[in-house]
Amino acid sequence: MQKTTQIYGIRTIIEAINSNEPIDKVFIQRGLKGSLIKELEHLLRKNQISNSYVPIEKLDRLTKNNHQGVVANISPIAFHNINEKVEEIMLNKKQPLFLLLDQLSDVRNFGAIIRTAECTGVDAIIIQTKGAAPVTADTIKTSAGAAFKVPIIKVDHIKDAIFHLQASGIKVIAATEKTNQSVYDISFDEGCAIVMGSEGSGISPSILKASDHLAKLPLLGDIESLNVSVACGVFLYEAVRQRLNSLNETS
Question: Which of 119, 169, 171, 206 is disulfide-compatible with 192, CB 3.0–4.6 A?
Fold first, then answer.
């Protein structure tokens, strides 16, 4: 299994970007100045690569090498372009199933969700460039290798991905407790996309507003919420159940 590779040094990272390496995130020392860092920042914006400005102590913890104020993680997988991948899927599937993750931050939850997505036939997972959990060695391990099988698409904004899918005829269903409608009242028989929110705040209000349907899981105990990976599994398997029933009825 390929692990996440860490590289460091401004020139090295610039070269990696120019060589189209799948860089997941770049950490830059706060207050760093100079022409090279400006060039790097320009490339990060141009290529829509996630980055954050951190104190030097954070970089020192990331690597013991001479990092020159910049450290980057190269993802063990390559990410897909939404235009190309969605078009490919729509041409080959009558009832595509997409999964959108809004600001999911825990790498193990991410890995568990990828594993379930692969088992339930999800055609692609869509995440946001900034704020999303990175694909790390822990993600790959928790996914049991499914991260190499399910295409993962990165976009600037999840809401833009929703509009793109809707324009392609995909119904978008957001998993949220802020509704009276149960997941069991939603039809998953057509092409659809399920949106799952972050561990803490759930799905952002603007994304809830953009979705076609809101659906919740019935909770019969005292705990007010499920772990996001568990909730995601229930939603995905409800889609599987309905689609299998439809196949049995037509056969």
Answer: 171
Query: pLDDT of 26-83, one tens digit each?
Result: 999 999 999 999 999 999 988 888 889 999 999 998 888 788 899 998 888 888 999 9
CB 184 within 8 A of CB 150: no
pLDDT at position 195 over 50: yes
Domain that includes residue 207, residue range: 82-250
Distance separating alpha carbons of residues 161 and 143, to the nearest angstrom? 24
Total structural domains within the chain: 2
Tell me: do 135 and 41 sit in the same domain. Answer: no
- Strand 51-54 and strand 171-175: pairing? unpaired
Q: How far apart are CA 57 and CA 43, in angstroms?
A: 25
- 205-215 pLDDT per residue, tens: 999 999 999 99
Asked if residue 138 and residue 217 are part of one domain, the reply reads yes
Contacts of 214 (CB under 8 A, 6+ apart): 173, 174, 176, 178, 179, 181, 208
Inter-axis angle of helices 10-18 and 35-46, nearest 10: 30
Average pLDDT of the chain to the nearest whole number: 91
C-alpha 200, offset from chain centre: 16
Tell me if 89 sits within 8 A of 123, measured CB to CB.
yes
Res 163: pLDDT: 97
